[in-house]
Amino acid sequence: MKIAVDARTMASRPSGVGNYLSDFLKALFQRKEFDVILICDVAESEAIRFFLGHSVPVFCYGKRVFRSAGVFAYFSYVRKILLSEKPDCFWEPNNLFPFPLTGFHGKVILAVHDLFPITMPQYYSRRYRFYFRTCIRMSLKQADAVLYNSQETKRVTEEYFPFLKQKSNFVSYLIVPKPPAKEVIDEGFFLYIGNLEKRKGTDLLLNAWCSYREKGGERPLYLAGNIREKGIAALLHEAEGRFADLHYLGYVTDEEKYDLLSRCHCFVFPSRAEGFGLPPLEAVGYGKPVLTSDLSVFREVLGDDVLTFPIDKGENRQMQILSQILLDEHVWSKKLTNHKNYNYAEVLGRYIPETLSERLATFFYEIVYSGSRPFEDRNGSKSKERRHKDTGKRKVRIQNYE
Fold first, then answer.
1. Mean pLDDT of the region 321-337
2. Is the backbone of residue 277 left (phi > 0), alpha (psi -120 to 50) or beta?
3. Cβ–Cβ contacts within 10 Å for residue 263, how many?
4. Which terminus of the chain, N or C, has fewer Cβ atoms within 10 Å?
5. Cα-Cα-Cα-Cα dihedral of 23, 28, 30, 32, to 10°?
6. d(Cα 209, Cα 23) in Å, to the nearest integer?
């Protein structure tokens, strides 16, 4: 099976969706029955270099694309590659595409991670909300199948678009890679890793931590990730001026991320809206206490026995509650780390690459080949007639836009 993938989200500085895609692709491209080709805007990230180093063809637009009119030109390039390469399947991992993929006759599989521009409109511009609402409906109608990152995302999406209940779909949880072996120590700091924006509760965390420090709390706070909003940048700058033990690290590599996770005291993730929530699971990989908001998706992904705080209060009340929890850690930390019902290994066992990639591969077969595996007969042996020939190591192709 030849799969073309829009890899723009992992092409420069990947975060949530980019990491989701990279982890699944690393598992899928190793399967002999898959030929993977990547389409991206630039080829700057470690993830893209990994696939180049393993002879995966990469078609590169040649310049960075953001949320602007450049997206339309980029997808014209994507469609051009699809029409020339004629893959069996096109996988769009990032919610939508801006116009119909006219002329492409392969299957289209769309991954939906959230509907936040619809469900949480206060965090998006009016222009982007209109763009998203228009294009998500068109994209969902054209898609032959939909991937969801959680049951919660599936429930919300089908609530807004009931026609999806009749469309093939699959809940494809995110892979949580086994963290590299490190000495797990406690250097006493709170840690947040993720994009810095209001939707992620970054303002809530900064205000709560500043209140915690004013009330006598002594633990430093480390934040890592891309700043997505000017208001967050201003709030961070103000807090840094008040407290020398607030440390903003910017975007961190995987190696730096795992180093921070292995050394933190507690991972704090006060998101106001989340489709899945990978960072808390990565912290669980080192047995660290995790404190999240009480969104239903965290109960689905992390289980019922992690510490949460209510997110359905007003912003000031949310901040007060979180600040007090940080102060009362002698109570909650013991409760969490000694909780008899919380099994770190069992939780992480739901998200191992081998299991999730096998399920996803099976789903691709069901969509592209109506459930039959083209490389095996009914007895499980390889069929004499293959849909394509093994060609050995594939030549790397990087095509730049001109």
1. 75
2. left
3. 19
4. C
5. 180
6. 33
Rounded CA gap, 96 and 65, in Å?
15
Question: pLDDT value at position 34?
Answer: 87
Phi, psi of 335, rounded to the nearest 5 degrees:
-60, -40
> Distance between CA atoms of 108 and 142, rounded to whole angstroms?
7
Q: What is the arithmetic mean of pLDDT over 207-232?
A: 95
Q: What is the mean pLDDT of residues 147-176?
A: 93
Number of helices followed by number of strands (H, E) in the chain: 15, 14
Which amino acid, 49? Answer: R
Between CA 326 and CA 91 the distance in angstroms is 42
CA distance 10 to 198: 23
263 CB-near residues (< 8 Å, 6+ apart): 185, 186, 187, 189
Burial 35-65 (b: 16+ CB within 10 A, else e): bbbbbbbbbebebbeebbeeebbbbbbeeeb
Quote the pTM value: 0.80
- Cα–Cα distance between 113 and 110 in angstroms, integer? 10
Find out whether 241 and 262 touch, Cβ atoms under 8 Å. no
Q: Go through the chain and tell me how many residues it has.
A: 402
